[in-house]
Amino acid sequence: MMMKFSSLLTTFVLLAPSVTFGTGTGSRVALYNDPNDLPTEEYDFIVVGAGTAGNVIATRLSEDPTRSVLVIEAGVDDTDVLPIHVPFLAFDNIGAKVDWNYTTVPQKELNNRQITVPRGFTLGGSSSINLMIWTRGSRDLWDHYANVTGDSGWSWDPMEKYWNKASVPPPNDPTLSNGNGPLLVTLPNFPSELDGKVINASKLLQQENGADSRFKYTVDINTGDSLGFAYMQELTGHGERYSSARGYLHPALNSKRPNLYVLIQTRATRLLQGMNVTSDIPYFNQVEVAQSADGRRFKFRARNEIILSSGAIGTPQLLLLSGVGPKEELEGLGIDVVADRPAVGKNLREHPMLITIYEVNSTKTSDDVTRSPALKQQLLEQWENNRTGLFANTAGSALGFVRLPDDQLEGIQDSASGPNAPHVELLYADSFLPVLGKQPATGNYITVANIVVAPKSVGSLTLESTHGDTFTQPLIDYNIYGDSFDVQAMLQVANDSETFFSTAPWTEDNFIVSLVGRNSTSIGATEEERIAFLKDNTITIFHPVGTASMGSKDEDVTDARLRVRGLKGVRVVDASVFRISRLSRPPTGP
Ligand SMILES: Cc1cc2nc3c(=O)[nH]c(=O)nc-3n(C[C@H](O)[C@H](O)[C@H](O)COP(=O)(O)OP(=O)(O)OC[C@H]3O[C@@H](n4cnc5c(N)ncnc54)[C@H](O)[C@@H]3O)c2cc1C
Ligand SMILES: *[C@@H]1O[C@H](CO)[C@@H](O)[C@H](O)[C@H]1NC(C)=O
Ligand SMILES: *[C@@H]1O[C@H](CO)[C@@H](O)[C@H](O)[C@H]1NC(C)=O
Ligand SMILES: *[C@@H]1O[C@H](CO)[C@@H](O)[C@H](O)[C@H]1NC(C)=O
Ligand SMILES: *[C@@H]1O[C@H](CO)[C@@H](O)[C@H](O)[C@H]1NC(C)=O
Ligand SMILES: *[C@@H]1O[C@H](CO)[C@@H](O)[C@H](O)[C@H]1NC(C)=O
Ligand SMILES: *[C@@H]1O[C@H](CO)[C@@H](O)[C@H](O)[C@H]1NC(C)=O
Ligand SMILES: *[C@@H]1O[C@H](CO)[C@@H](O)[C@H](O)[C@H]1NC(C)=O
Ligand SMILES: *[C@@H]1O[C@H](CO)[C@@H](O)[C@H](O)[C@H]1NC(C)=O
């Protein structure tokens, strides 16, 4: 099993008992933490999951004072959880009380290692624990969604206005894609020496190879053309994390909206069919909830609709437990089949991430900070004081999106969503990230995340035979490297990283000293060695999608308006709907 991220937080709690989180985001008064306290059992809409998507839809729906909205969230209040709000401490949330702590089943192609699957267990969901990188994706990706749903409303042009409704760049970054929403997006608050080198290397490679350099530099990755290297755009405006709770839910609760009810520390356990409704197809209008596995069950009714926003793990689990899924699979588990929907839990996609760590000839990385309680304390006080300094920044601030070389795609179906969409993402952090091993006691390091963002491997989510309810973890199988295309793509990424590091910004002053792999000091010389290195040093980058995917065909779980097919009363609005498979693009080349 993979080791857990080390916890810096313990040190802070011990060192800084007087530190309080004082941004005024708190709204405890309007939160319910006991189902008994809710004034009524019936609401117009019930939103299951106060995560990234759920908070947006719940607050937008409740702008109309005639609609009542109940939000049910399994996790805890985010208000006083310091590492949620301090950008630099984001990794401390993984494996902590705000994480669901899922793991995959043993991954065959990763030497049977089990990979951790962090998911936010708090208001804001995974937007409260993620790395805050704000990317809209490519024009090709959204046009692909339009294609698979048969609904042009999903394509880039009409979608752009919704991006603009979500985020706003700060006035000091006029170059960025604009908008006027509640999420404060910013360029890095505290860029490092490393970030400057990444940008300089891409500019250099562009000078050498021309405008179509695979490593070109770009100012704004959010224009629809997402290829190139750039400073990240981050949800860290004013030096704080802008989760969907910070941007949407808390402001609505603070304004004392009387028609918005938020119940926390309570899990939806099943959807139930209406008692008094007549319908030609199954009609769900009740949500059963509980606060513990053997605790009392409560039921809440939705007059209008149940909206699932429990995420790519939680949503398919809830559908399966409610009898919506592959008929034979459900029968085998002894669950009454309400609707035979074979694709529920299938089409699971995740991005493999190869971690390469290098010792560097520099004293400017943040390794010395993460090793020193005194320095951490000082930086935390600075952040408390005026939201500046290293702690106002995420772990890394430069990234690249790259396509595989054309010759690698000849004769095979391209896995990217279009000819201008990336296959590869590269992220850089200026310290030893303890994701595969412990930070050494001395030395300065950089961590590179080499990611395949257009993988072909398809996994699945199923229920354990003694499936219990949503208090039992489902079986998550990402099937990492199950398709050999992904191994070939990752080999190419590893080579790309080596090409990148052979340029002047890295070779001058011998910046890169040596590779620190888990069990080796080189990626390897032969392909066999390199594949062995990949298998030993790959984890994933927390982007599961597809388990309740949308599309125009009957086999798809939801239609283009995200209503679950074969049912009435239920819609899915989270990352489960993103449909990556069934690419319609034919193979290119001879
Ligand atoms: C560590 C990490 C780093 C990441 N970094 C980035 C990044 O930098 N940039 C980026 O764009 N993406 C990043 N991602 C991915 C991104 O955060 C997710 O894709 C996105 O947040 C998913 O949103 P969602 O609404 O589908 O689900 P979530 O935001 O996970 O929301 C689901 C919510 O439902 C709740 N829930 C689940 N089951 C139940 C139930 N039965 N009853 C009640 N409530 C339930 C959960 O507690 C949660 O609050 C990262 C993810 C992680 C975990
Ligand atoms: C995840 O693990 C942490 C640390 O053990 C724990 O506090 C938390 O409650 C766990 N999350 C869930 C959903 O059980
Ligand atoms: C989707 O793309 C395919 C192949 O390019 C095309 O034939 C088809 O008409 C498209 N479908 C829609 C609904 O746009
Ligand atoms: C990047 O290049 C610029 C211009 O040559 C230079 O001033 C700067 O120091 C370089 N940055 C780093 C981190 O090397
Ligand atoms: C069904 O209708 C009866 C009579 O109108 C009502 O008392 C009861 O609450 C309804 N039950 C549900 C689950 O809606
Ligand atoms: C923020 O506070 C620190 C001390 O904690 C100080 O050194 C720094 O100058 C302040 N920055 C601004 C922009 O006020
Ligand atoms: C990557 O580099 C290795 C070693 O230099 C080489 O054998 C291999 O062919 C390269 N692979 C690709 C896909 O370029
Ligand atoms: C480290 O960098 C310095 C310049 O910053 C250089 O003088 C020195 O030779 C480098 N050390 C090594 C081991 O390459
Ligand atoms: C690599 O090292 C880890 C311990 O750091 C060990 O658990 C693992 O089995 C090793 N893997 C291989 C392929 O040698």
Automatic annotation (TrEMBL):
<dbReference type="GO" id="GO:0016614">
    <property type="term" value="F:oxidoreductase activity, acting on CH-OH group of donors"/>
</dbReference>
<dbReference type="Pfam" id="PF00732">
    <property type="entry name" value="GMC_oxred_N"/>
</dbReference>
<dbReference type="GO" id="GO:0050660">
    <property type="term" value="F:flavin adenine dinucleotide binding"/>
</dbReference>
<keyword id="KW-0732">Signal</keyword>
<dbReference type="Pfam" id="PF05199">
    <property type="entry name" value="GMC_oxred_C"/>
</dbReference>
<dbReference type="InterPro" id="IPR000172">
    <property type="entry name" value="GMC_OxRdtase_N"/>
</dbReference>
<dbReference type="InterPro" id="IPR007867">
    <property type="entry name" value="GMC_OxRtase_C"/>
</dbReference>
<feature type="signal peptide">
    <location>
        <begin position="1"/>
        <end position="22"/>
    </location>
</feature>
<dbReference type="InterPro" id="IPR012132">
    <property type="entry name" value="GMC_OxRdtase"/>
</dbReference>
<keyword id="KW-0285">Flavoprotein</keyword>
<keyword id="KW-0274">FAD</keyword>
<feature type="domain" description="Glucose-methanol-choline oxidoreductase N-terminal">
    <location>
        <begin position="311"/>
        <end position="325"/>
    </location>
</feature>
<protein>
    <recommendedName>
        <fullName>Glucose-methanol-choline oxidoreductase N-terminal domain-containing protein</fullName>
    </recommendedName>
</protein>
<comment type="similarity">
    <text>Belongs to the GMC oxidoreductase family.</text>
</comment>
<dbReference type="InterPro" id="IPR036188">
    <property type="entry name" value="FAD/NAD-bd_sf"/>
</dbReference>
